[in-house]
From TrEMBL:
VOC domain residues: 2-121
PROSITE patterns, alphabetized: VOC
InterPro entries with a match to the protein in the record: Glyas_Bleomycin-R_OHBP_Dase, Glyas_Fos-R_dOase_dom, VOC_core
Family annotation (Gene3D superfamilies): 2,3-Dihydroxybiphenyl 1,2-Dioxygenase, domain 1 (3.10.180.10)
Name under which the protein is recorded: Catechol 2,3-dioxygenase-like lactoylglutathione lyase family enzyme
Length: 134
């Protein structure tokens, strides 16, 4: 088994796609107006309209309701990413910060409120996998 994608349901696919294209520099594939995918070598971020939710089951998902996950994006330079995201990101949760487990991390929110972590390993920490997000 492998995780194929993480999907965000939104009321505004176009706005969320534009945000993630700007934040990641990845062009989204748009096989349908109600759906998009940002594909990376390690996984896919899918964005779907909430109008597709009834196809999954009544009330199966809701836009802007998540406060329990973070999307982790491995970047080369967190500080450069922070500077680049000025004008793209409206809500930064923190400024670039070096975490005790050895990652430099920048937390932000997408337009629907999903937490995003842009991180880079900066040092080896005994007993820790520094490639973990946050």
């Amino acid at each position: 088994m492998q995780l194929a994608a993480t999907r965000i349901f939104t009321d505004d696919v176009d706005a969320l796609v534009a945000f993630y294209e700007g934040a990641t520099g990845i062009d989204a594939a748009r096989p349908h107006p109600l759906f998009a995918e940002l594909r990376t070598p390690s996984g896919t971020l899918a964005i779907a309209s909430t109008s597709t939710v009834p196809l999954l089951g009544d009330g199966a998902a809701a836009a802007r309701a998540n406060r329990s996950i973070a999307l982790d994006f491995l970047v080369d330079d967190v500080d450069a990413t922070y500077r680049r995201l000025q004008g793209v990101v409206d809500v930064f949760v923190n400024e670039p910060t070096t975490m005790p487990w050895g990652n430099r991390s920048l937390l932000a929110r997408d337009p629907d409120g999903t937490l995003i972590n842009f991180f880079a390993p900066v040092s080896e920490v005994a007993g820790a996998d520094v490639r973990l997000g946050a």
